[in-house]
């Protein structure tokens, strides 16, 4: 938690310099509280860096494709020339990501994660998949992660401006 706190402080200080007046001075503190509520419910003082990174990626303002690629990079394992994501790594990613809606009472059971993992690996003969297969599966908007593209679309619409007037 202390390491993540330091990283968040540095991250938000940089953001504050790049966008003066747009970053709350307590952003690092609030973000750490959110991460602790999601990944350290028992107060051990330990949060997996990979879990925290997944949450920060998911909650970032980046495009869906950029988020999906970042998830792959964090959870894939190197295999010679390519990186692959295994069933267990995908299960871990989905479990980590589902802590985000769980914090607001939208729980997903372990069976949801299992069903999603099986659907991703449906028809795959190997025990791991390449990035393109992973991205293709995520683009199909699996039910277990439907909240992610929905939230992205909602945040994207905030930037839309229509030059129309109503009577």
UniProtKB/TrEMBL annotation:
Record-linked InterPro entries: EF-hand-dom_pair, EF-hand_dom_typ2, KCMF1/Dystrophin
Entry-linked SUPFAM superfamilies: EF-hand
Top-level division of the source organism's lineage: Eukaryota
Any Pfam family the entry gives: EF-hand_3
Membrane-spanning residues: none
One CC-aspect GO term: plasma membrane
Gene3D superfamilies the UniProt entry points to: EF-hand
All copies of domain EF-hand, residue ranges: 65-154
GO biological process entries: synaptic signaling
Protein's name in the database: DYTN protein
Organism: Calonectris borealis
């Amino acid at each position: 938690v202390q390491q993540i706190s330091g990283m968040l402080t540095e991250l938000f200080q940089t953001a504050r310099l790049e966008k003066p007046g747009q970053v709350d001075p307590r952003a690092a503190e609030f973000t750490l509280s959110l991460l602790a509520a999601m990944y350290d419910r028992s107060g051990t003082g330990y949060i997996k860096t990979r879990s925290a990174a997944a949450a920060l990626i998911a909650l970032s303002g980046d495009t869906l494709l950029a988020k999906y690629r970042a998830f792959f990079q964090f959870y894939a394992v190197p295999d010679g020339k390519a990186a692959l994501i295994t069933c267990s790594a995908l299960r871990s990613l989905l479990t980590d990501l589902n802590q985000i809606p769980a914090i607001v009472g939208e729980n997903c059971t372990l069976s949801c994660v299992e069903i999603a993992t099986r659907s991703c690996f449906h028809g795959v003969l190997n025990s791991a998949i390449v990035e393109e297969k992973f991205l293709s599966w995520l683009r199909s908007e699996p039910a277990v992660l439907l909240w992610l593209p929905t939230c992205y679309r909602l945040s994207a619409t905030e930037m839309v401006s229509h030059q129309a007037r109503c009577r």
